[in-house]
Amino acid sequence: MDNRSRVVYTVVMVMACMGMGAEAQNSTLASNTASSVNISSTNCGTTQFCAAQPAGCNPSVSGSCFFVSTSLISGQNLSFQLQGQSSDYVAVGLSRTIKTGQNDYIYVCANINNTVNFLSILYNNGVLTLTDTLSSNLVTGSVSGQTIQCIFSALVPNATSTMSSSTSFFISIYAGTLTNGVPDSPKAVFISTAAVDLSNPNATATNSLNSNNSTTTTTGRAFGLQPTLSQALLILLGGLVFIML
Length: 245
What we know:
By secondary structure, the chain is α+β, with helices and mostly antiparallel strands. The chain has 3 helices and 14 strands. It has one domain: Immunoglobulin-like, CATH 2.60.40. Strands 4, 5, 6, 7, 10, 13 and 14 form a 7-stranded antiparallel β-sheet that branches. It has a 5-stranded antiparallel β-sheet with strand order 1-2-3-9-8, with no helix packed on it. Residues 7-34 and 213-245 have low confidence and may be disordered.
C-alpha cells in the first residue's frame, strides 16, 4: 500500500469513528413523548417557596431551568416540585449546615428507561446511601428529552436548634448520573447561601455558586462524544505513524 492509499484509509477510519459517536449521542438524547408534569413558578411568593438556577427562571417555559418549590402540607410534611435537565437524575438536598454532604437528606428523581423513579438518600462525606428512613412519596413525574420533572411529598426531619424553624434548611439542587440504576455523586447546581424556612412562601434563597462565579453544568451522558473523539485522534495518530514507517 503506497502513502496516498494509507492517508485515504486513515481519513475514512476517522470519519467512520466520528459518525458512530454522533449516532450514539443522538440515541442518548432521544426525546420521550410523555406529557410533562405541570410545574410552574406562578405561585412563588404566595403559596410556595421557590429556588431556581438561573434565578427567576420559569419551569413552564421551554429551556434550561433548574427549579424547586416547597409548600407546607402540615407540621413537617412538605410538598415539593422539582425540575432540571439531566440524562439520569435531578435531586433536591436538605442540609443543616452550609457545608453540603454532611448527613444531608437527598430526594432523587431518576430517569430509568424514560420513567421517573423516586429515591430517598442520605449524603455524607461524599457517599450516597439509599435509605427507607425518610418518609416520602412520589406523587407524579415525567421525562421529556433531558428534562426531568417530579412532584413529591416528604416528612422532613427536624432542623437543628440553630435554625429559625423546624423546617429551615440549606437547600440544594443537584444533577447526576446513574450506574446500574444507582446514583453517582451529585453535581451541585444550586446551594443556598443561608438556611431558609421551606414552609414560608416569602422566604428567599440566593445561589452561593453564582457568588463564586461558578459555571452551572449538568452531568450525565451529554458529553458522551468526547471519548469518541479521543478514540478518533488515536486512530489518526496511529495512521500517521503507519505512513511514516
